[in-house]
Specification:
Length: about 110
């Protein structure tokens, strides 16, 4: 449920530019509680290059200039957790990684917006 606007600067991590912090609006919370908001700081030096390439070169190819989703599908909607999980499993198997390694998406709202 990340939007492009959820990324921003971290004043203590200027080397990450506009991708130094990610505002998670729909993070996992205690059972029965609303989603937990939190800021997550960038820590890997390759993150800036990857996110910059995605947001400046790849994402615009989806024709989603006026759509907020950080990772849209080919139809302009958000990529769903089920699709992410199925791809993760395929990659995990192809790489021979342990089945105990799983993708644990947060349970955010089901709305595509």
């Amino acid at each position: 449920m990340l939007d492009a606007a959820d990324f921003g600067r971290n004043p203590h991590g200027g080397e990450f530019g506009q991708y130094g912090r990610c505002q998670v609006r729909f993070g996992k919370a205690k059972k029965g509680s609303p989603p937990k908001r939190r800021g997550v700081l960038t820590v890997f030096d390759w993150t800036l290059d990857v996110l910059d390439e995605w947001f400046t070169e790849v994402r615009p190819l989806f024709g989603t200039d006026n759509y907020p989703a950080a990772w849209p599908s080919e139809r302009g909607l958000r990529i769903g957790c089920q699709r992410l999980n199925s791809r993760f499993i395929a990659y995990r198997k192809a790489l021979g990684l342990d089945d105990g390694l799983d993708f644990h998406p947060s349970a955010g709202p089901t709305s595509p917006t």
